Amino acid sequence: MTALPGVSALVLAGLLLAGCAGAPVAPPPVGKPARVAAPPPKVNPGQPLSVQGRRLFDEAVGIREEMEKARAVDWAILERRWRAVVEATGAPEAHFNLGVTLERQGRDAEARAEYQEALAGKPLKQAAANLGVLLEKAGDPRGAQAAYDAASREFPDDAVSRERLAALYLQAGQLDEAWHQAREALLRDPTSVGARKTMVRVALARGDLDLAKLVALRLQKSAPDDAEVAYLAGLLLAKQGDDVGAAAQWTKALALQPGLAAARAGLLGVAMRDERWGEVRSLAAPMLADDPSSAPLQLVLGIALRHGGKPDEALAAYAAAERLGAGKLPEVYLARGVLLMRDRGDCEGALRAFDQYERAAGPVLPQGSPVPKLIRECQEQVEQGRAAAEAARQMKAEAAGKRGDIAPSPPSKPSPRTKP
């Protein structure tokens, strides 16, 4: 079966643009309970904690520590404990710890509110870091940046805020500022894994593979069991043209973190380039289960189905990709055209699909696009078909004419007999 030149690379680019290849991952929240400092925290300046408030606070911290020792932390119980502390004291540290319990239970909006309450009462480094992470998760990079900026000003020695600022600048495409913030984070914490991850990504984006390799080696030594580190090592190897090594690293990343979308997208790309269509199907199906609205994934699945000898299912997948893409995925028309041309012998339908592709792709086709060649080939086949049909029609007409020339005359009517 004829492969579809050009489409794999275009679809992979679409997967990357859709995010499958992974932006920098937000770190887990900083969840250590805040202790009462000396002097004790104040609800308002000049208002120390009451005896009851201090007792409740210390009890809540003690219960958390006992649960951690037993490796059985019950966040619902701790939430009730910290709510009692908040009601009794209103201390910023109590709001922070209540926020941690809410976040651990997946109640991010409530947790954000508690972190904001804590920061309104007192600058708390951990509260600022956790608030920024939650704002990132909520899709508010500007709010997250504001939180991290405030933390970096309040705490000049804080590495976490600068590490996260570096990741945000990277996502925004501001590579110089991303590199600067990552270096600032490393100056404050030489063990910062997040800062080095950003540096690897910046070096890869700049095409500096030697620098990316140097930083990645340090990352692999300091965080050998980090799934994102394994993914980045695979990304570097892929850039160096080592698909086998890249696939091995991405497989390791999935073993460390099953379902890591970026690693699965990487393996999918290698399978597509190698035209291992059965493997493409096995990889695309679970990715679609996680992201059923992905038009590029639907298209990839359709291409694999077509190469697996299932053109009807492939056409259904193309229709789903066209619907989900809302006109923004021209490659679906190319894939449909190739199927109609190669598998159905329907060149007229294929030409309509290729015309849709050219109109959707814009005035300039991507470099190396197979469409002009496919159109010429299809047009030749259509013309040949028309010429053959015309020749057949003429031969039929000539045959009919010849049969008319030699046809026997109809029998004459008998003469009326005369009487003798």
List strands and helices in order, with pairings.
Elements: H1 7-17, E1 42-44, E2 47-48, H2 51-70, H3 75-89, H4 92-104, H5 108-121, H6 125-137, H7 141-154, H8 160-171, H9 175-188, H10 193-206, H11 209-222, H12 227-239, H13 243-256, H14 261-273, H15 277-290, H16 295-307, H17 311-325, H18 331-342, H19 347-361, H20 371-405
Antiparallel strand pairs: 1-2
Helix pairs in contact: 1-14, 1-16, 2-3, 3-4, 4-5, 5-6, 6-7, 7-8, 8-9, 8-10, 9-10, 10-11, 10-12, 11-12, 12-13, 13-14, 14-15, 15-16, 16-17, 16-18, 17-18, 18-19, 19-20
Account of the 3D structure:
There is one protein chain. The chain has 420 residues and is an all-alpha fold. The protein has a domain at 1-20 and 291-398: Tetratricopeptide repeat domain (Serine Threonine Protein Phosphatase 5, Tetratricopeptide repeat), CATH 1.25.40. It contains 20 helices and two strands. The chain has helices at 7-17, 51-70, 75-89, 92-104, 108-121, 125-137, 141-154, 160-171, 175-188, 193-206, 209-222, 227-239, 243-256, 261-273, 277-290, 295-307, 311-325, 331-342, 347-361, 371-405, and strands spanning 42-44, 47-48. A two-stranded antiparallel ribbon has the order 1-2. Strand 1 (42-44) and strand 2 form a beta hairpin. Helix 16 runs antiparallel to helix 17 (311-325). The longest helix has 35 residues, at 371-405. The termini are far apart. Residues 1-10 and 12-47 have low confidence and may be disordered.
Compact summary:
By secondary structure, the protein is mostly helical. The protein has helices spanning 7-17, 51-70, 75-89, 92-104, 108-121, 125-137, 141-154, 160-171, 175-188, 193-206, 209-222, 227-239, 243-256, 261-273, 277-290, 295-307, 311-325, 331-342, 347-361, 371-405; strands spanning 42-44, 47-48.
